[in-house]
Amino acid sequence: MVEIKPHAAHWGSFDAIVEDGRVAGVRPFARDPSPSTLIQSVPDAVHARTRIDRPYVRTGWLRGERRGSLRGGDAFVPVSWDQVTRLVAEETRRVRAEFGHAAILGGSYGWSSAGRFHHARSQLQRFLGLGGGFTTQVTNYSYGAGMTLMPHILGTNDVIQGKVTDWPSIVKHTKLMLCFGGLPLKNALITAGGAGAHEYVPWLRQVAAAGVRFVNISPFRGDAPDFLQAEWVPIRPNTDTALILGMAHAILAVGLEDRGFLSTHCTGWEKLRPYILGESDGTPKTPEWAEAITEVPAATIRRLALEAAGLPTMLTATWSLQRAEHGEQPWWMLVALASMLGGIGKPGQGVVFGYGSMNGMGTPRLNLPSVSMPAPRNPVGTAIPVSRVTELLERPGEVLQYNGRDIPLPDIRMIWWAGGNPFHHHQDLNRLLRGWCRADTVVVQEPWWTAPARHADIVLPATTTLERNDIGSSSSDRFVRAMHQAIPPQAQARNDHDMLADIAEALGFRDRFTEQRNEDAWLRHLYDRWRAACARIGFDAPDFDRFWAEGYVETPPPEEEFVLFSDFARNPEAHPLNTPSGKVELFSETIAGFGYAEIGGHPRWQAPAEYLGASAAARFPLHLLSYQPATRLHGQLDQGRVAAANKIRGREPILMHPADAAGRGLSDGDVVRVFNDRGACLGGLRLDDGIRAGVVAMATGAWWDPAGDGLDRHGNPNVLTQDVGTSRLGQGCAAQSCLAQVKRFEGALPEVTVFAPPAIAEEAA
């Protein structure tokens, strides 16, 4: 018997084809104009050899080897659900009693499920909050520095993650689009919460057909699709701030800055202008000055500046641009350039961060909320920027400075992780592992034997989304999708809500956690909350039973194009920004008042410690960029057919310019060793003349497969990336500031072992 079950994932809505209790295949959602190929890996992941079949406990932990013991080498002992529920409850009670609630790190971070009820982070943090509290994380790896900066500068994060100037406005009004980091197609496969419609590519084609001219300012030509016919400006990585400053100087030199906008809508221009001209530091930021840093010809910088000043121009930067040392600076300077052009708030003009970083950015939509799980208050007030996890584990009792605050770091005794993979997201994985091993106990809820599960003490097998009912929803997509359970839970896997409810019962607060609702009652409750919110803004959504039967709700498109900051542009006094001045803050007294020497009160060029212009490049002469993959979502689906087909001899590909390969005696398809002082990994060489010389690039997300000598056998670039904050202001991820060397791997090629289960010991008595 064949059954068709509607479903959704971050890589898109789809129908699961079920035969004899197994997911035999998938087909795209009928309303999706440009479905993702990633859905083809779904059956492989659901029925993978790496599925965790039952609860397990690390043998060393059972022997009493807790804090300081090296995780990742022990075998695991299978235990029953009753046993593991008791063990987890007892350990949670002990840690809270002996060390306090802040000693538990609720480390759930990541995309986890597109379903809004069975969302691992929401479930775990609800459980930990109701149980007394926990240390949590704020911001994200994707744009953490930018999301801390923008409220100071523009008073909102809408310019990054909200409803931004939409594609219809760009089609009608834009003539030139300067794209720092390009407009990569691969990121259009993904929408947090799921996409009923992948509309990024169709809209981008409409923009190109309207005659908009594109400029791809990136070390990689492939960051703009061929159909855009974009001009490629192969900039040296991490030097975008210098390029933008050079453009600003070129505009000032001929008096084309919008003085009216700068005087009425901005504050701090009188301090930024002297810096650009060199009056405050003796160094004019001319295009020639910028050429020496960026290796972009001064004539190109000057031409782009004057073209932008003479045409309706949209400036955009990908999220990845700020994942670097001093990552706040290029975004801040791009806001300043948009202000000089006077385009902020005008149709088809201004600045947006994130076109091309995720599907849904710029898609026309009503300003509706997504279906969401209500979160209880966390009684513990400690929260760190997510990219500072290793520092949290390394420095108990010390202080972390972030965004003007001093955060005392608690002594973490218990790490509890669900939904997400820190050994994918985080940098300098060997250092992270040393910090990870400082905890007494690590609990991980996972469907698969990923790196967090392999380096845990207690492993709780979680269901995949296909094994439970849920609702897929995203505020950046027009569809809400019913996610019907397709197959029974595999082996002894359980959903996060049910396993946590049992642990909550052992700790005495089951009813507060469940609110006496089962799965069906919760789904109806969440949907009805969303339906009521829609009604308040004029959209009449169908009732739950109709939604569930039909499989989706489609919200109508807006009647008018949307332009971000249009009210502010029209009347800044009546519609001020949520900044101290009510204006665009080109100089921020607040940031200057923090006293952070590395950030300053206005955007400025600061050379990273790791880039091709640094002295460190003498030892490690290649700039390694780590990008989001086209064959999976972060580390999800790495065990699937789409990701496997892209690997070279089982290793993650590394892109290199043919000239760099020739100088090292390397050929396409070679397995190479990529290394620096932090670590090493293997990769499969793929030559590409569309990457600038001196730069190599490797997708993130290959499951970490460390050998005993510290070599990652599979190709995870985060063994190489440095774990430093962008600055004390943003404390964001700085993965894109990374120097390395590449050589041919010599000797017998080690087997990739990460797609097989770890060693399993005999069952405990």
From TrEMBL:
<dbReference type="InterPro" id="IPR009010">
    <property type="entry name" value="Asp_de-COase-like_dom_sf"/>
</dbReference>
<keyword id="KW-0560">Oxidoreductase</keyword>
<dbReference type="InterPro" id="IPR006657">
    <property type="entry name" value="MoPterin_dinucl-bd_dom"/>
</dbReference>
<feature type="domain" description="Molybdopterin oxidoreductase">
    <location>
        <begin position="51"/>
        <end position="505"/>
    </location>
</feature>
<dbReference type="Pfam" id="PF18364">
    <property type="entry name" value="Molybdopterin_N"/>
</dbReference>
<dbReference type="InterPro" id="IPR041460">
    <property type="entry name" value="Molybdopterin_N"/>
</dbReference>
<keyword id="KW-0500">Molybdenum</keyword>
<dbReference type="InterPro" id="IPR050612">
    <property type="entry name" value="Prok_Mopterin_Oxidored"/>
</dbReference>
<dbReference type="Pfam" id="PF00384">
    <property type="entry name" value="Molybdopterin"/>
</dbReference>
<protein>
    <submittedName>
        <fullName>Molybdopterin-dependent oxidoreductase</fullName>
    </submittedName>
</protein>
<feature type="domain" description="Molybdopterin oxidoreductase N-terminal">
    <location>
        <begin position="7"/>
        <end position="47"/>
    </location>
</feature>
<dbReference type="InterPro" id="IPR006656">
    <property type="entry name" value="Mopterin_OxRdtase"/>
</dbReference>
<comment type="similarity">
    <text>Belongs to the prokaryotic molybdopterin-containing oxidoreductase family.</text>
</comment>
<keyword id="KW-0479">Metal-binding</keyword>
<dbReference type="Pfam" id="PF01568">
    <property type="entry name" value="Molydop_binding"/>
</dbReference>
<feature type="domain" description="Molybdopterin dinucleotide-binding">
    <location>
        <begin position="622"/>
        <end position="738"/>
    </location>
</feature>
<dbReference type="InterPro" id="IPR041954">
    <property type="entry name" value="CT_DMSOR/BSOR/TMAOR"/>
</dbReference>
